[in-house]
Amino acid sequence: MVNRVEKLSLLSEMIAFAKYDKDIKNIEYNFLLGVARQLEISREDFEYLIEHPVTYTHLKSHSERIVQFHRLVLLMNIDSESSNKGAIKLYNFGLRMGLSHESISKVLYLMESFPNKIVPPDVLIDIFKTQYN
């Protein structure tokens, strides 16, 4: 399980991802706040992270990186105005996390075939398992 520093880093990374198009929209804010609660981060700490990002901490666990990538996929697609720019940003975040480019590309490709472009967790895990083995 991730520690507090890693949790703050995960949330900070997601905030940075949401800010790629300048402003965090209400729907993105509410999603991020929900993730903060799930990670047991207080609203005060969440608000602080919006203006003061923390340094990126690389997750050691491959499964935790997949979960974080899935959160980013959900965040990107929560905004119906997501663009090709968002997909490129997601791809780069995935690479920075140490995920395989083949898996990331496959997820981005398959997103188009799912309702609201949201890849189910089991499909996403299978994609990364196949590439990891």
Descriptive report:
This protein is mainly alpha-helical and 133 residues long. It has one domain (4-132). Helices cover 68% and strands 0% of the residues. The protein has seven helices and no strands. The longest helix is centred in the middle third of the chain and has 17 residues, at 62-78. The chain is globular, with a radius of gyration of 14 Å. The relative contact order is 0.13. The model has no long low-confidence stretch (mean pLDDT 87).
Question: Brief description of this entry?
Answer:
This protein has 133 residues and is mainly α. 68% of the residues lie in helices and 0% in strands. The protein has one domain (4-132).
Distance between the termini: 22 Å
Please indicate the percent range of residues in DSSP E strands (runs of 2 or more): under 5%
Instruction: Provide the succession of SSEs.
Output: HHHHHHH
> Helix coverage percent of residues?
55-70%
Provide the low-confidence segments as ranges: none
The biggest beta sheet is recorded as: none
Over all CA atoms, what is the radius of gyration?
14 Å
Quaternary organisation:
single chain
Mean pLDDT, all residues: 87
Count of runs of 4 or more consecutive helical residues? 7
Q: How many strands? A: 0
